[in-house]
Design a protein that fits this description.
The chain is mainly β. The chain has a domain at 32-81. The chain has no helices and five strands. A three-stranded antiparallel sheet has the order 1-5-3, with no helix packed on it.
Length: 82
C-alpha cells in the first residue's frame, strides 16, 4: 500500500453528510459547511434539505429550498451552520 499525504486536509468534503468534533458538553461549537447539488433530472427541479440532528444540537440551512432551472446545473449551494 502506498503512503499518501494530503497537502490541504479538510473536513468539508462535498458528501451528503457532516462531521463535527465536540470537545465537551460545556462549550458551544460553530461549524459551517457548504454543499453543491447537481441537478441530474430533466428540466427544472426543487431540492429541500432534510436534516437529522443529535440531541442538544441545532442546524441551520440557508436557503432551505434550492431551485435548479435546467438539467446538469451545478449551482445549488446550501450553507449548513451547526
Amino acid at each position: 500500500m502506498e503512503n499518501v499525504k494530503c497537502s490541504n486536509p479538510s473536513l468539508d468534503l462535498n458528501y451528503p453528510s457532516f462531521i463535527v468534533f465536540y470537545c465537551d458538553n460545556t462549550t458551544s461549537k460553530v461549524q459551517t459547511f457548504q454543499r453543491t447539488v447537481t441537478n441530474v433530472g430533466s428540466g427544472a427541479m426543487s431540492y429541500k434539505a432534510r436534516v437529522e440532528t443529535p440531541k442538544g444540537s441545532e442546524v441551520f440551512v440557508l436557503p432551505e429550498t434550492s431551485i435548479s432551472k435546467q438539467e446538469r446545473q451545478a449551482v445549488i449551494q446550501n450553507h449548513y451552520k451547526i
